[in-house]
Amino acid sequence: MIISGKVHVLGDNVDTDGMIPGRFLALSEPKEIATHIFEEIDPGFAQRVQPGDVIVAGKNFGQGSGREQAPLGLIGLGVCCIIATSFARTFFRMAVDLGLHTVECPEAYRVAKEGDLAHVDTKMGLVRIGAQEFRTTPLPDFIQEIVDGGGIVPWIKCETARRATAGRA
Length: 169
What we know:
Aconitase, domain 4; alpha/beta
């Protein structure tokens, strides 16, 4: 998938507890969760992010509690991709399951500045920040298919329908 968006730069060890405070964990609608993303750390963050924007962050993005509301809130804001030096394993898995694109690219973090334009080709493993382009390892095809399809639940529904149709042929 090809993604282009304005960059929002975050640091290392971005914590899910900071993304969405515990008092909002009862929320389940992405748009509602989105209004509280980084509320206690950066109160204006949710207002600055526009649909299609990209987060560029340092190492261990999504560390802390395994809160599905964190990636859901980012999706609700319209964040279409997170480029990070590395991801916490649980956050990465939740992002895949929910259809949020994630790309590991340490070089992008080193050069990215707030407001830069990012272009990402998740299938080819290319990341461009401003005029600088970097190669990264693309996700395996089956994971790319899940993320491109909107997450694991839509993928399972599609795959189940495909198999049912193939069985009738």
